[in-house]
Amino acid sequence: MNLEAGGMDGSSGANETDSPVSQRRADELPAPPPERQEVLLRREVKRLDWSLLGDATLGFFSMETTFTRTLRDFVVNPRRAFESYLGPARLQFSNPLKLLITLVAISTFLNYLVGNFDAVVDGWAMGAQEAGTEQTLTLEQQAALSAFLQRYYNLLVLGGLPVVAFITRFVYWNRAYNVVEHLALNSFALSVTTSFYILLVGPAIKFPLVMALYGMGSLGYQTWVYRRVMGPGWFRALAATTLSTLSSMMIFIAALGLYVAYLQA
User: Fold this and answer.
1) Where is this chain compositionally biased, Polar residues type (predicted)?
2) Which contacts (CB < 8 Å, 24+ apart) does range 69-74 have?
3) What percentage of the chain exceeds 90 in pLDDT?
4) Local structure of 265: helix, strand or coil
5) How far apart are CA 52 and CA 32, in angstroms?
6) What are the DSSP calls for 68-116, one per residue?
7) Res 34: pLDDT
8) Which pTM value belongs to this model?
């Protein structure tokens, strides 16, 4: 840089001083994804051999051989992973909704095995009793509420996802991504946190502190993902995490409250 020229003209020197910072912030903003792209695939079809058995038994767990890579990439570098998914490398990643539906189904089954649904019902009944509200549950109603959670827990989790997508789209209104792309990003983020939940739900039976640490880690990861993918602004990332978490909790509690009201009607 020509320092002497900058010294002769103060405004010119100020612009050159500010330009690297502005350029760095601009580089951190997400680029608009391509509107349309063509990908040509070449596949080699071989004669059947014993790999057929391996594909049948391991294909589900590999999620089209992309399960592990998708989770790994969104843990290590979520921005690069998401931009790759929006680009020509999309076929190398799992479908975010399919991935999340599978993981939520697994977590629902594990919650049933370890008795987490009964714990939620007991907590609801105890809270209603202490508050002296009209939603005090009988034993039959508690059993019905537990069965409701076992049957519809996955829908309660997935049902709040579109709301979260609209929230993050609103918070990041000046970014290049549309609502469906926000839906995909939040699905990937929730898939990662659900995977860790599946791994930790067993140890949490003996060490309850594990779930508290998991909750804080999940919120931290979600905030970090928003900051990395959407660009500068920790405050905006924290706001997106807070609003998304509160909306999901309100949807879950409202659904339980409506069902309890139905049982007592």
Assistant:
1) 12-22
2) 69/93, 70/94, 70/99, 70/188, 70/191, 71/191, 71/192, 71/195, 74/188, 74/189, 74/191, 74/192, 74/225
3) 49
4) coil
5) 41
6) HHHHHHHHH-HHHHHHHHHTGGGGGS--HHHHHHHHHHHHHHHHHHHTH
7) 72
8) 0.78
What span, in angstroms and rounded, lies between the C-alpha atoms of 210 and 263?
34
Amino acid at 84: S
CA atoms within 13 A on the CB side of 138: 5
Instruction: Decide: residue 189, CB within 10 A, 0-12 exposed, 13-18 middle, 19+ buried.
Output: buried
Closest alpha carbon to 138 in 150, 147, 129: 129
Q: In the numeric block, which tokens belong to residue 18?
A: 């500010």
**How confident is the model over 131-168, as pLDDT tens digits?**
655 557 788 888 899 999 999 999 999 999 999 999 99
d(CA 177, CA 83) in angstroms, rounded, equals 11
Please state, in angstroms and rounded to a whole number, the distance separating the CA atoms of residues 141 and 163. 29
Asked if 72 and 93 count as a contact pair (C-beta separation under 8 A), the reply is no
Q: What tokens appear for 110 in the block?
A: 């594990």
Give pLDDT tens digits for 93-126.
999 999 999 999 999 999 999 888 888 888 877 8
